[in-house]
Structures are given as structure tokens and as C-alpha cells.
From TrEMBL:
The active site is at 235 (proton acceptor). The lineage of its organism: Bacteria, Bacillati, Actinomycetota, Actinomycetes, Micromonosporales. It catalyses: D-xylulose + ATP = D-xylulose 5-phosphate + ADP + H(+). Catalyzes the phosphorylation of D-xylulose to D-xylulose 5-phosphate. It holds the Pfam family FGGY_N. Residues 251-432 form the Carbohydrate kinase FGGY C-terminal domain. One of its GO terms (molecular function) is D-xylulokinase activity. Residues 4-242 form the Carbohydrate kinase FGGY N-terminal domain. It comes from the Bacteria. This is Xylulose kinase. It comes from Micromonospora parastrephiae. InterPro entries: ATPase_NBD, Carb_kinase_FGGY, Carb_kinase_FGGY_CS, FGGY_C, FGGY_Carb_Kinase, FGGY_N, Xylulokinase. Keywords: ATP-binding, Carbohydrate metabolism, Kinase, Nucleotide-binding, Transferase, Xylose metabolism. NCBIfam families: XylB.
Length: 474
């Protein structure tokens, strides 16, 4: 009974699960928090990983380990492998102007969008690593001059698990590489010319491994006894592995960010920028739409009303569908899709009748789900087939989200039991590495809840009318 470990190094915390490689049975787990903020010293991730691993009983008895991490984050290293500056995370929007400039320099909004979509599968937005490199070169040139290599959060953690054996040993995978803005899912190659265009010179980048290839072995001081390191991947690709998403499944993940994605056999190239044409962790592709505002919309609404999340859900379910015309556009941290990094949130339709906690709670849940449903529309416009939605992430624990989602999405919704599906996906990849074979092992997912489609078109119509009225910060 070989054991494997999966790591989810997310924006907010590090989770570690240890599972049976063949059956997926959960044996133990651990968790440790990450600091707040949109830039973080990577050492904090390492300390959290060590703490979560210790809480999970260590790694001495595992056959393989894989790390899934938050996408896009810029980790810059000098020639000696030292971190040059705190990592800029995916949700740091200071590089919005840099993203716009990269598109403009490629021929303007329309032509530039086509250029980037054809070159890398995605049009740059502030989240992408390439835009952060441009920002660094422009705003911190002394630090930029020290940079010898750039990698992503999961790459750096995998490298540390291997004992940090030099820049040439940096490894990554297709899924995470596809979110940098300088790797092409269609060709499987880096576009170092684009990295040079953004940063001013070329840098060392991690080798891109196949889904079941090993990135090395676990360092002996971490309890390793020849344990293999998987290539790892980005958090969304890991979540797709963790829930076993198949053809016709669209995964909607409601965490710090909101993501809508499906597994595809061909790469996407949306020159509007709405759909990012990422790769997945199985050798296929992962067209994806991301929103900056997801579960924290619920947190914010609960804080405004002075209630907990469970009471927020009760309030929302006590109000009618459509909240009698009250609409929340939840651009609380700007927004990535649509690309409005300076946008603010708004509430429309406030009347004496709708000035109740229940109406506001309902509007918050519906607004968050409508923003994700816009992403679902963008995927179908790119050819995705939607048989059902698999709803995961912390926000899926809300009874109101589970009940209202079929009304907003207009299709059946399946909710697996609460779990760490990003960490589980990493563990499943580790099992694939440990056991070998052409495909990852099949792990049965038990205890899912199913909700039939119950479309209420007025909810989407109200939201569509209101979202164009939000303002940008000055």
C-alpha cells in the first residue's frame, strides 16, 4: 500500500493530504496559514509547508509528493538561488498598465489580442507573470538587474523539497507554465522572445515536464528515502484532477478567486481575453475563466450584515429569486474577467422594499454566481460542452450557493463533499508518478449532492443590466 502526499499551496494557506496511492483513501492531513497581502516572501510558503507537513505526520513513509500552487505568482531568484524580492501574487493588480502596454505594443487591442492568443493561448492581464516582469523592469530596475531566474510558487516549493539543487534543477509542468504568458500550450514550447520583450532580457526558466514525469527526489533532510517528486501543477489543473472532471463537466471553483474551467482535447485561443487557453495536468488543455471576486464576496456581505456565513445563507434563501430587483455587482477588488482592474463594486435597485438583510444577502450570492455564469458563457462560446457543473471550493459550502447555483447557471449542479480537491489532485498526480501507467489512478468520489437545473433568467438579465454601470477608481 504505497502512500503519496499532495500539497495545495494556495493564496491563504498550505494544505497537505496523505493518501493511499491505489484507492485514494485519506489517511492524514495538515494545514498552516499564509500571510495576507498580494506580495509575500516565499519563505513564508516554505515554513507553512513544513508546518502543514509536520501536522500531517511527515513524509518519511510516502512514495511520492506533488505540489499544486496558486498560479501566475512571480518568484525571482538571483544567480545563487536567493529570492530577489517578495513574490507578486496573481491578485496583485499593480501590473495592469504593463498588461495593457504589452497588448498595445503587439498592434493595439484587436491585433494585439490576436497576437497573444495565437502565441500563448491567452491575452495578458495583470494576473499573468509576464506582466509582473514588465512592472519589475520598469519600477524596480536595481532589483530587476539581480534577477537570474523566474519561476512560479509551485516550481519554487518543488525545488525546495528537492533541496534547492541549483537553478538548472528548476522544474514545472504544462498547467502552470501555461499561465505565465511566455509558454505556448499549442506548441509545448517557451516563448522566450516574449519574456525578453517584457523584461528586457532572457532569464533561466524551469524545465517543463510531462504529467507523470518526476521532478527529482525528496531531500533526505525532509524525511525522504528516495520519494519521488511529481511535476506539480497549478491549482485549477489540480482541482480538475482532484474531482475527476471529464468530458461535459465544467468545474466552478469558488475560493479566493472564482474559476470556471473544463478539460478539452484542443487548445483554446480567445483573442478577447475572456478565456485563458491553459494546459491541464493530464496532457490535455484547460480553457479557463477567472474572476478576482468569489468567496470573499460572501465574507464581505456577512461582515456588512454583522452575521456569520451560515446565517448569511439562511437570509439569502429567505429572499425571492432575483431579490426583488436588488443587484450586487461584486467587483470588490477590481476584476479580471471582465478585465477591469480598477473597477469598484456596486449595489443597484435599492428601494424601501429591498432594504433588508435578506435582500442584500441574496443579491451578494446571486451577484457572485452571475459573475461566474458570465465565465460559463465565455467557455461555451469557445466550444465547451456543458453537461453539468461541478461546484467546489470554500464558497460551495454555503447552502445558499448550492441551492441558488442551478437557478443562475441553468444546468445541473453537482457538489462533492467538502474537501481539499487541489491537494487531492496533487496527490493523484503523485500516485500517477509512483505507480506508473498511462493515466492517473481512478479514485472514487463518494457523497456528492446533485441539484437539478432550475433556471431563473431574470436573475442574469438584471445582473447584465447593472454590471455596465459600475465605476472605476480614480
Amino acid at each position: 500500500m504505497p502512500l503519496v502526499a499532495g500539497v495545495d499551496s494556495s493564496t491563504q494557506s498550505c494544505k497537505v493530504v496523505v493518501r493511499d496511492a491505489e484507492t485514494g483513501t485519506l489517511l492524514r492531513q495538515g494545514r498552516a496559514p499564509h500571510p495576507d497581502g498580494t506580495e509575500v516572501d516565499p519563505e513564508a510558503w516554505w515554513q507553512a509547508l513544513r508546518g502543514a507537513t509536520d501536522q500531517a505526520g511527515g513524509l518519511a513513509d510516502v512514495a511520492a509528493v506533488s505540489v499544486a500552487g496558486q498560479q501566475h505568482g512571480m518568484v525571482c531568484l538571483d544567480e545563487d538561488g536567493r529570492v530577489v524580492r517578495p513574490a507578486l501574487l496573481w491578485n496583485d493588480t499593480r501590473s495592469a498598465d504593463a498588461a495593457a502596454d504589452l497588448v498595445q505594443e503587439a498592434g493595439g487591442v484587436a491585433a494585439g489580442g490576436r497576437f497573444w492568443a495565437e502565441a500563448t493561448g491567452s491575452v495578458p492581464v495583470a494576473s499573468f507573470t509576464i506582466t509582473k516582469l514588465r512592472w519589475l523592469a520598469r519600477h524596480e530596475p536595481e532589483l530587476a538587474a539581480r534577477v537570474a531566474a523566474v519561476c512560479l510558487p509551485h516550481d519554487w516549493l518543488t525545488w525546495r523539497l528537492a533541496g534547492a539543487p541549483g537553478l538548472a534543477a528548476l522544474r514545472t509542468d504544462r498547467g502552470d507554465a501555461s499561465g505565465t504568458g511566455y509558454w505556448s500550450p499549442a506548441t509545448g514550447d517557451y516563448r522566450l522572445d516574449l519574456l525578453e520583450r517584457a523584461f528586457g532580457r532572457r532569464l533561466t526558466v524551469p524545465e517543463v515536464l510531462g504529467p507523470a514525469e518526476s521532478a527529482g527526489t525528496l531531500a533526505a533532510e525532509l524525511g525522504g528515502s528516495g520519494a519521488l517528486l511529481g511535476a506539480g501543477t497549478g491549482d485549477n489543473a489540480a482541482a480538475a484532477l482532484g474531482v475527476g472532471a471529464g468530458p461535459g463537466d465544467v468545474v466552478v471553483s469558488i475560493g479566493t478567486s472564482g474559476t470556471v474551467f473544463s478539460v478539452a482535447d484542443v487548445p483554446a485561443a480567445d483573442d478577447s481575453g475572456a478565456v485563458a487557453g491553459f494546459a491541464d495536468a493530464s496532457g490535455r488543455f484547460l480553457p479557463l475563466v477567472c474572476t478576482l471576486n468569489a468567496a470573499r464576496v460572501l465574507d464581505a456581505a456577512a461582515a456588512m450584515l454583522g452575521v456569520g456565513l451560515d446565517e448569511l445563507a439562511e437570509l439569502a434563501l429567505s429572499a425571492p429569486a432575483g431579490a426583488d430587483g436588488l443587484v450586487m455587482v461584486p467587483y470588490l477588488e477590481g476584476e479580471r474577467t471582465p478585465n477591469r482592474p480598477l473597477a469598484t463594486g456596486a449595489v443597484h435597485g435599492l428601494t424601501l422594499r429591498t432594504s433588508t438583510p435578506a435582500h442584500l444577502a441574496r443579491a451578494a450570492v446571486e451577484g457572485m454566481l452571475c459573475a461566474l455564469a458570465d465565465g460559463l458563457d465565455a467557455l461555451t462560446a469557445q466550444g465547451a460542452t456543458v453537461r453539468r457543473v461541478i461546484l467546489v471550493g470554500g464558497g460551495a459550502r454555503s447552502a445558499a450557493v448550492r441551492r441558488i447555483a442551478p437557478q443562475v447557471f441553468g444546468c445541473p449542479v453537482v457538489v462533492p463533499p467538502a474537501g481539499e480537491y487541489v491537494a487531492d489532485g496533487a496527490a493523484r498526480q503523485a500516485a500517477w508518478v509512483a505507480l506508473g501507467g498511462p493515466t492517473p489512478p481512478v479514485w472514487e468520489l463518494k457523497g456528492t449532492e446533485e441539484y437539478a437545473a432550475e433556471p431563473v433568467p431574470a436573475v442574469r438579465e438584471q445582473y447584465a443590466a447593472a454590471r455596465g454601470l459600475v465605476l472605476d477608481r480614480r
